[in-house]
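INFO  loader      accepted 1 record
INFO  loader      residues=1382
INFO  predictor   begin
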Amino acid sequence: MRRRTMPGRRTAAALATALSFVAASAVSAAPALAGPPAGLPSTAGAVTPDRPTDDAGGSSAAGKSKLTDTLRARLGTGKSGDFWIRFEQTADLERATTITDWAERGRYVYDELTAAAKRSQADVVAELRSAGADHETYWINNSVLVTDGDLELATRLAAEPEVASVHERVAVEPIEPVEQHPAGEAGTASVEWGVEAINAPAAWDLGHTGEGITVATVDSGADLEHPALAPHYRGAAEDGTVNHDYNWFDASGSCGGDPCDNAGHGTHVMGTMVGDDGGDNQIGVAPGAEWIAANGCHSCSDADLLASGQWMLAPTRADGSQPNPALRPHVVNNSWGSQLPGDINDFFADEIAAWEAAGIFGVWAAGNAGEAGCQSTSSPGANAATYSVGATTSEGEIAGFSSRGPGEDGMIQPNIAAPGQEVRSSVPGGGYEVASGTSMAAPHVTGAVAVLWSAVPSLIGDIPVTRDLLDASAVDHADDECGGTPENNNVYGEGDLDVLALVEAAGEEESGDIAGTVTGTDGEPVDGATVTVGERSTATDASGAFRILLPVGTYDVEVEAFGFVGGVVEGVEVSDGGTAAADIALERAPMTTMTGTVTDGSGHGWPLGAKVRIAEAPADFSAWSDPFTGEYTLDVPANSTHTVIADPTAEGYATSREPVEVSAGPVVHDVAARVTAACVAPGYGFGGADIPVEEFESGELPEGWSVEDLAGTGEVWTFDDDFGYGNMTGGEGLFAEVNSDAYGPDGHQDTTLTTAPLDFSGLSAPTLAFDQAFDTLGEFADVDLSIDGGETWETVLHQTAPAQGRAFVDLSAAGGESDALVRFHLGDAFWGLWWQIDDVGFGECLPVAGGLVSGHVTDLNTEDGVVGATVADTEFPDDGVPTADPANTHVQPGYYSLFAPAGERTISVKGDGYVSDESPVQVTADTITRHDVELAAPRLSVTPDQVSDDMVLGGTGSGRFTVTNEGTASAEVEAYPGTSDFEILSSGASGGTIKGVEREATEVAAAPVPSSGKPGTAHRTAAADATPSDPAAERYAPHGRAGKAVTPAPTPSLLAGEGTTITHSSSQEIAPGNSVACTGAATQVLRTFTLEDFGIGGEFAVTNVSFGVEIADPGTEVTVNLYTLDGELLYENMELLGSATTELEDADLTLVDVPVAGTAPAGSTLVVEVAVPDGPVFFVGSNAEPETAPTYLASEACGNPEPAEVADLGFPDMHAVMNVTGGTSVDVPWLDVQPPVFSLEPGESATVHVGMDSSRVDQPGTYESAVVVDGSTPYRAPRATVTMSVDPPKNWGKIAGTVTGQPCEGDPAPLEGAFVKLDGSAYDVTLVTGPDGGYARWMGVSNNKLTLLSSADGYPPEMKSNVRIIKGRTVVHDFTLTEFCG
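INFO  predictor   done
INFO  writer      dumping tokens
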């Protein structure tokens, strides 16, 4: 039973979710019904809702409301980031389950999904292209991923009516094994214990091993060469050749063409599904099945996983072309998801629904968070639509790590349990390893479904029945730990998997295969041929091969392929367990030529560019019409009827589909493309209807309208917002609604709202436009049309999926009618949700007087097309269009097409880096005026592009290069250092350096501690008892007892050694019991970094902050804020530069790395704040080792809302470990460029002098900087690389060495990520070893003597005292650290 609450009592976030992550039915969505573009001539009677029109504010508010709070916060700091755009419209896939033909069913789902995505994404994609924003479109869930976009762009796009929501990236990870070790410890069994435990061999004995079924993984990849997998790859031919078309998808681009697995996870999973080497390694449940794979979890990014999901539904050739849904797999294993226990989201819900509609059975790992207790399973495995698998041990009991339910909406999860602990399977390289996890359990179920469908082919694609059979045949396993019943609970689900019982429950069918190859008479394979046997069909792969599983019997095999004469192989006998051959060679069909024109068919009649193709043909049977003439030519088979599809590239035109009879000779087929109901095609606007817009502002039934109560319950359309839900349509004020939610659990609504009679006598193609908010729990929302006074009705819009925003409905059937009626019908509502409508208007899409200006914009210097320039009529600059690089072969890059009023117009062309052009153009109505433009621009070159000099540390050098303007316009040139790099002299060591201050740290004044009298605390430790006289100290408290300090593992940003890392911490160790916090209350830990103290003379662009954690509750949210400080350390003196929030998991006694962006200006003081909210336990990591500037704490609950020094609070030994990493590339202190700014006319040159000053660096070595010569041109700015080679002074020497780790087991090896502190008499520095375990640093003998301290995570430290720097020599001090083994 569902539990429901009124929206008034729902949280705002919950209500927003209900409306933001939904998709609309297949209705065109566009801006509010209105006239033509601003400023252009309008048609009479435009229907526009009479509401306030503050476009900027309105669109901004609408956009902001669709952004998630998290994304708004991430982009609100001024930095750019990635975000997803989700669209309202969804494809109606309901009919797919009624299609029995496998190929036809897949094609139907693919066509519906791609069509819906194309329609709804068009406006947003056009805007992204115009903005030059990087993006990728996805059709499986109707979304667009924007990379590196800013808040302004996200808000603007969100305001588009087609957009449902804009949200941040989704974090997904592989469900990694909880443990994994070489198989030698487990031994080899002929049939692995998990396969035996689920009774798979007993099903094999009946002759069912998965033959004819294709399984797949979305995982880290698969090792094609593994002997247990290679024979089962679908792309492997009997002659030993391998074809990856339709069989392998490299989502991450990491494998170089062939299947690979760089992590091993996917290979292990695939082995459990199908693995069998023909010998002693029977590791797979369905060894007779074939496999294909996508490595979406090589990265496990949300984008790669979505791309993999698309590919599974419509596999493509290896180059990404010619998607063919007929070759989709039957079963797909998914061992990935959110790793936050209990995290439920619907990001992949559309993908899951699409797979199910196409007949693909998805299997999901439940997750390995069982130790978190009940409700620890996470999405997607926790979602109601998925079939998820828990893991059991060899003793048949649930594994401790196996995630428990309940899942989404309290549903029982997992659905079933299977072996998942100590599972032996394949790993890359031909070997075997034992692993534990629900990732190991899920493929047992995937293989079981393959065995079931091979045994009973009539079940293929029947997802509900297959789920029911899995549930019914599972062996009950009672467990009341997390709720449920003995038969179905949140630990084991329906029980333990049993393959034999599964097959027996379904009832066996005697079956076999028909396999063959389709070729032409020339012997070349025919790709994509349709092979039909009775009611089943499949498609040939790239090698022309096919295989189809059938019940025993005699069949005729029919083969059809575009461009060939069809053929039949008659009387093919299928025996039980056998494979019958059916090879066929098809003759080429005679060809002829189809020609024609594609033009506008809604009034203007101008030519259109369009892709013209034959529906029945492969993708390469297509042609483009010339956008300047509309002409196209296409070779087609003669003596056939073809469905010709014309898809105009101009926005706002409907795709045309027409049957064309083709005789033996050439045929002419002209296409007149119609504009869509949304009326967004160039040169069109709404108008023509003298019917007022109904806004429902009276709060009563509009005059002449009527309501009918078909259910007889009195629960009908209302108009006064009596239930208080507010207007959710996007309109304003009152509205009409049927609120099923408000009527409660005993309600039933079936009611219509009918308009007054409508006079469409002056309209040929009327359109209905209205705002709506429809949410559903099974009810439908229809729009019906009558042209006979209500005697009969035609449904013109049927909605069963949620929809919100502006909708347009084509009423062409009522064109010319004077007494039409439209009604809004909500039915099948039994305590459902709601349908609201507002601003109901009627009109027609009519041509606006004017013509098209089209042409190419090219670069005067290179003659290349200019993409991304803006072309506009100077009278209407906001209505400009971008130049593009269309796929149409008749045009080149730089193509544009602009609508403008007829007459003499001035057309402007503006491109970044180019001199703008304005030209007069005579525009002719209803035609295309050709207007090509060449843009001038400066173009700079540098000679030579390498400058170098050598010197001793402290010396200077110089060089020069020449800059020439080779372009066609003048340039204002700026020369500046753009990058900087350094390699230490004579060192093979790699790793990071944590830089301390180069002078005494700048003192920063802080607020006094609010206290009646400060205690004397000069020698107290943080763990000591606080003096009662200090109110703040009385509240701050340590956590636990003091313990021995440990060395944490370095963070990735420290280990990479990229950028500059600065710190005030002389030690990276974390001491237990050393830190204090305002326990349970919001606490802020702060440090200040004055840039010049660290030798940073320019800006400092922060990329990462790492800080120590002594202890933290799992799930604690920590926010890192970056500020610049002006004055005393008070919040009113801080200006926010950037912010980022992270969630801590298992962070005790570790260093945590938080990516955060913000740029501190040159000469400024940077403040870094680590802030924790009320509630969770969090103690920052600290030690009592010296620090070069104070640690500060602030907590309003503990009496000091402003930052105070920890020493003043009574805790002088609490020195927080905190490091800041960033780039200083804009400031290269050793390099001087003169002149930095100058002008160049075309053909002129200038000399740039560079000065090198090695006194501005602290280490001998090679320093390199690329001097950028920027002339604001459209080209990449040329660079001159300046190299300064610095030798050490005679009184300098080098300290170097290698840190080796001796593990508890195994041989010693270089230790990456060890800290080496060089503590000298004058200054000190901390180094981080690289992969080779090496470290190196040059120093002057004035820093003698040194103490060296090396430490690493899990290894006790080692110290070397009295180390001397010897001038001119390298002193080597190696460390061998022994792992702490307990």
